[in-house]
Amino acid sequence: MSSRSRALRRTAKDSAARSWRSSDHPDDDMPVQITLDPTLADSPSGSAASPNGGQPRDREVGLDFPREWLEFTDPANPDHVIRADMTWLLSRWTCIFGRGCHGIVEGRSADGCCSHGAFFTDKDDEKRLRAAVKLLTPQTWQHYRRGFDNYTEMDTIDGTTPARRTATRPDGPCVFLNDPDFPGGGGCALHAQALRDGRHPLEYKPDVCWQLPIRRDQEWTKRVDGSKILLTVLAEFDRRGWGEGGHDLHWWCTSSPEAHVGGEPMYRSYGPELIALIGEPAYQRLVELCEARERSGLVAVHPATAATRQPATADTRRSATADARRSNR
């Protein structure tokens, strides 16, 4: 990543954090204890039952379907162009961790997508985690441990290049994942601490954790006239995003109608995350364009959203949004 790209990223993330802390949101006084879907307790395998029976992934839509893309220039930077997957950003996906999530590993639905630990993107990512861990205690972090080397470990993403990630418990998930019945609150200890502190979880969690399920790719590219731009692509982090192993996941939420039950489209429910990814001015322009697309009607609706589409009342929108913010993934 170039120094210019890194500076843009830091500015965007700081803007997102300030915007979230200064806005009216319900998380300040929200309890961090979460309750898992009751069907989990009745399942001998520890996996939530699929509503229509069969395997959870049986209801997932395919990976290849029509999508609508939109490209625009960042109002704050003429050298920065954003290409956005409108089919994904206008979908009604929402995180259902603890509320019917089947998990990516069979028999471990309580893990959600936290079964394998999180790889760090850069030194800034590691530095943020170090600072957040200092705020945790044995009362708020079930698997409390001291020392960076004790809560992270070396691994490899491509089978060759060493890479550091959060540690995992023996035969278990990420060390930061508290069990559902932990008195200090189930789910991600970092997520819960952020809510207790009135901060957005993206300020405490590893990049990959808060970015999912949005995939951001960036590269400097040369146009036909020889000029260079930083191209940012915002897309769905589907099974392919995990590499070859993504096709072996027990279940993946972005393709499942069970997770497309949000009270508002993703470009709104994931506002702070999108601001952190592309910056406040670009996000505001994205909102304008998404609203215009909604008014005119999306041609390529996400099939998982289409499968669950029903008229939403103001009450159901508020309820779904509040539930998503409680999810301590």
Architecture blueprint of SSEs:
Elements (H helix, E strand, L loop, with lengths): L2 H20 L16 H4 L26 E5 L6 E6 H4 L33 H11 L14 H4 E5 L5 E5 L10 E2 L8 E2 H8 L10 H5 L2 E9 L5 E9 L29 H4 L1 H8 L1 H17 L6 H4 L7 H13 L3
Parallel strand pairs: 2-8
Antiparallel strand pairs: 1-2, 3-4, 5-6, 7-8
Helix pairs in contact: 1-9, 9-10
Main beta-sheet annotation = 4 strands, mixed
The helical percent reads: 25-40%
Q: How many domains make up the coordinates? A: 2
Strand order of the largest sheet: 1-2-8-7
Contiguous low-pLDDT stretches (5 residues minimum) are 24-31, 33-47
* Average predicted local confidence, pLDDT: 86
Task: Look at the helices and sheets and give the structural class.
Answer: alpha+beta
Element order: H for helix, E for strand: HHEEHHHEEEEHHEEHHHHH
Number of helices: 12
In what range is the share of β-strand residues? 5-15%
The rounded distance between the terminal residues' Cα atoms is 28 Å
Radius of gyration over all CA atoms, rounded: 19 Å
Number of strands: 8
The rough form would be described as: globular
Characterization of the model:
It is built from twelve helices and eight strands. With 329 residues, it is of the alpha+beta class. The protein has two domains: 3-109 and 212-326, no CATH class; 114-200, no CATH class. Residues 24-31 and 33-47 have low confidence and may be disordered.
Primary descriptors:
single chain; 329 residues; 2 domains; four-stranded mixed beta sheet; two-stranded antiparallel ribbon; 8 strands; globular
